[in-house]
Amino acid sequence: MTESFSPQRWANTLTLLLNGVHGAAAERFPVQVPELAKEYSRHRFPDDPVSLVAGDILPTFDGALYKAPPGKKGWGIIYNSAIASRGRINFTIAHEFGHYLLHRLRFPDGLECGQQDMMRWDSEYRQIEAQANEFAASLLMPLDDFRRQIDGKTKPTLDDLGGCAERYGVSLVAASLRWLQYTERRSVMVVSRDGYVLWARSSPTALRTGAYFKTAGRPPIAVPTRSLAAQPDLLEKSRGQMTHDSDVWFAEPCEEIALASDQYDFTISLLHLERVIRTSRFDEAEDDEDAFDVMTRRLTGGN
Ligand SMILES: [Zn+2]
User: Which domain of life does this protein belong to (predicted)?
Assistant: First the structure.
């Protein structure tokens, strides 16, 4: 029956287990996924456990879940040992552990996952990857603990989010995406390269009030010429902050915090917008969530 568990249910099961073992002890985070995957699967699925977690030279992808070779039982989680970031490796292992728990029966030969698979959390991208990411994010960054670090009303700096990335042993992008899922603020993260938006993610309130970029299935969107993302020479030590008038990123003012990442070869812009936007259309929408969801789907073409 456990194969029908949702990503969230698996993550909650493991989170309760870890809370029980560690309580509030300092070593609760970051979650030691290799040991957890091996020990938990050995008890829960003794005939089909994760028997190996190891780095290897992987040519074109970041992580994989492989069936053990004939004569051996279980599965191997392999990550690309060329990845320099400990956080990216940790998230990759958790993502593959998610595939093991959620998808190994559907994919008896296993799965190989690229960098995009770990970073695109939207289900429009690819559902099984979104599920593995939801599991990994929930396991590594439980919301109750994250809220204690940055509450839902706080406007975090890159250092605040970087502190959480450190705490949970994940990349800054992963910590920022997790924060965007629960913040009450209107904020948008835009990831760009060479002056074009690769993808973007909005907080629920930003999405609801029309602050989002749709990138899937569209021609590339250029970053605004007056944005920090378009002016890397304005960054100091790869980071910067700028307040924008209307008509830079959106038809309203916003604050942009930008970080150029050498590691990934892209720029992250975190855009903080004003707290509340009130138009008659959105007032109506807030009163009627269902109608609003329908509208959002229509506007974004999403599901
Ligand atoms: Zn994957």
Answer: Bacteria
Residue written as token pair 């030969």:
109
pLDDT the model gives residue 86: 87
Report residues near ion ligand 1: CB below 5 Å: 113, 117, 129, 132
**Low-confidence residues of the chain: pLDDT under 70:** 1-3, 123-125, 263-264, 277-303
C-alpha 235 to ligand 1 mean position (Å): 33
* Euclidean distance between CA atoms 235 and 158, whole angstroms: 14
Which is it for strands 50-56 and 110-113: parallel, antiparallel or unpaired? unpaired
* The token pair that represents 182 in the structure block: 């629960």
List residues bridging with 78 in a β-sheet: 54, 64
Q: Are 147 and 23 in contact (CB under 8 A)?
A: no
- For residue range 196-225, list pLDDT tens digits in order: 999 899 999 999 999 999 887 889 999 999
Among 145, 67, 70, 83, residue whose Cα is nearest residue 118: 83
Q: Are 166 and 149 in contact (CB under 8 A)?
A: no
Tell me how far the alpha carbon of residue 132 lies from the centroid of ligand 1, in angstroms. 6
Give the Å distance between the CA of 66 and the centre of ligand 1.
12
Q: Which residues contact 257 (CB under 8 A, 6 or more apart)?
A: 157, 158, 239, 240, 241, 269, 270, 272
Q: Please, what's the largest Cα pairwise distance for the chain?
A: 66
* Residue 247 alpha carbon to ligand 1 centre in Å: 37
Q: Which residues contact 130 (CB under 8 A, 6 or more apart)?
A: 120, 121, 122, 123
* Res 24: pLDDT: 72
How many Å lie between the centroid of ligand 1 and the Cα of residue 221? 26
CA of 94 to the centre of ligand 1 (A): 10
